[in-house]
Amino acid sequence: MSRTKILWVTYWMVDKIAFRPVTSENWHDFEKLFESRGGPKSCWCTVWRTVETLPVAERPATAKKLEMKRRISSGEPVGLLGYFDSEPVAWCSIAPRDTYRASMSDMMPGDEKQSIWSIVCFFVSRPFRGQGMFQKMISAAEEHAAKNGATLLEGYPVDPDSPSYRFGGYVSAFEQAEYALVGRKGARRHIVRKMLSQNRAE
User: What DSSP assignment string belongs to 143-178?
Assistant: First the structure.
């Protein structure tokens, strides 16, 4: 099969992806994606979430998994799964900023007047990478957050040469989605923001 045809098939696949919030009803899809080959099963997207203390016998990864299951079971928003047909193939951590650890970001003047949600992490199964998935995920995250009352979104991308925190995306990709640079947090992470249009909530 020619490279052109492979790219066409992949773009067609990406265009068919639908996003759904993670709830207790699709926990097993979340689990399946994270435990797939190359999945983020070592962190379970808890880098910026507090993990409750568990017995010493529990392995760190197990404790993180159980923490996410506890949050999801309680009804706490944690993010979106991207599906190709019925198969989970992508993940975006999008949730109210106050559900993450305070050290993740900084308060800024006027924040008390906003409902701030944070886009913290992205994961895409290998066959779907590099075909416009990032922009599709950001758009889905914006729509989801707006429908749940968010007025402002915040992200924490890095530069392409960063040795860490790349799971949060790259600055250029957020700029392409019309996010503005507003500061830095630490030596590597930038802080970007975007006000959400009320039209997205309708």
Answer: HHHHHTT--EEEE--B-TT-SS-GGG-BHHHHHHTT
